[in-house]
Amino acid sequence: MKPGRSWRSGLLGLVLSGLAMVPAQADEDVSAWLDRMSRAVDSLNYRGTLVHMRNGHVDTLRIIHRADENGIRERIYSMDGQPREILREGNQVRTLLEGNQPLIVEGRIGARLLPHLPVSQLSSPILAYRMDFAGTERVAGMNTRVIEIRPRDQFRYGHRFWLEEKTGMLLRSALLDHAGRHLQKLTFVDIELGVPISDSELAPAIEVRDAPEATMDEHSVPPPAAASELRQASWTPARLPDGFRLASVGSGVSAEGRPFEHLLFSDGLTSFSVYVEEAGGGQASERIDAIGPVHVYTGMVEQNRVTVVGEVPPATVALIAQQLQRRDKSGSDR
Question: Where is it mainly found (predicted)?
Fold first, then answer.
């Protein structure tokens, strides 16, 4: 995979949630609101226009989401810049990119533009975050409750969520550095909730011809199975920052035709991905690149190209790369 495209990394990065303690009752209330948000993002019908602000750059996106007895369908497309669309049907995601380097990415991919936060499945979130209510504000003409989530260590960023009071729908999210400064913001400038969505609205408007295609076979890992799944992976970090667990595992073929393994780790709010790809005789110098709040490590481990990417501080991708090791066929670390 090539995670260096800024908008794609941004999508990878715009996901997930967390918990904390500030007192216990407040914790329970905030957790309930996060659960409402997760349910609303998935179960409501809505269409709206989103503005994504990051690193001095502004993208405008349109999102159309339908949930019914046949499952979830979603279409996200750019309204400026090069045409690009993301089509979701259930767990299947198809990404279409036009331009000088057209590309199709298809498979069971865990990245979402809006977060899906199954609070009951979060692993030890209280170790990683403090959270509390931070007042009320109006967003896109609707009243919202504001939730602020602050990290307890240097391995993750803070977050602020604006949730519509009646439904819990996420109307605005902000990613915060350790000084509380905004690293990026995603906000609805208009949104219709609970509206009928037709099939034609969910059909792609662009057609990518003769484009290379990357595929991924991915499945989510529930918390009780995470440890055993990680032991079965070919590669694994010897150490993870507190609170992170394996959220999904996958494999696929890159646009260049090389197989890769993918591990997605999450603490419930923050996530990062590890890609290990056969180098095919090539080499990659060790480096960390920043695309706004997204940090990307690239390097080589045992003649394999390794990429660690996520909306996390550089210390996180560096730590994971340093700790990555191959497992032998018996499942033990080398």
Answer: periplasm
Q: Where are the beta strands (DSSP E) in 69-153?
A: 71-78, 84-89, 92-97, 103-107, 129-139, 142-151
What's the pLDDT at 135?
Answer: 95
pTM of the model: 0.78
3-state secondary structure of 117: coil
- Give the structural domain span for 280: 217-326
Distance between CA atoms of residues 332 and 121, nearest Å: 27
> Which residues have C-beta within 8 Å of that of residue 234, sequence separation ≥ 6?
261, 276, 326, 327
Query: What does the pLDDT look like over 167-220, one tens digit per residue?
Result: 999 999 999 999 989 999 999 999 999 999 999 999 998 876 666 665 555 544
Q: Which of 146, 179, 202 is the last residue of a domain?
A: 202
Q: In whole angstroms, what is the distance from residue 228 CA to residue 313 CA?
A: 28
Distance, in Å, from the CA atom of 89 to the CA atom of 196, rounded to the nearest integer, reads 17
pLDDT tens, 243-268?
888 888 888 777 677 888 889 898 88
157, part of any domain: yes
Q: How many domains does the chain have?
A: 2
* 211 in any annotated domain: no
- Give whole-number Cα distances, 21 to 27, 129, 180, 246, 287, in Å: 5, 8, 19, 23, 36
Same domain, 29 and 107: yes
Tell me if 175 is assigned to some domain: yes
CA distances from 156 to 89, 242, 254, 313 (A): 30, 11, 28, 6
pLDDT digits (tens, 9 = 90+) for 21-48: 333 445 558 888 988 998 999 999 999 9
253 shares its domain with 184: no
Over residues 93-117, mean pLDDT: 63
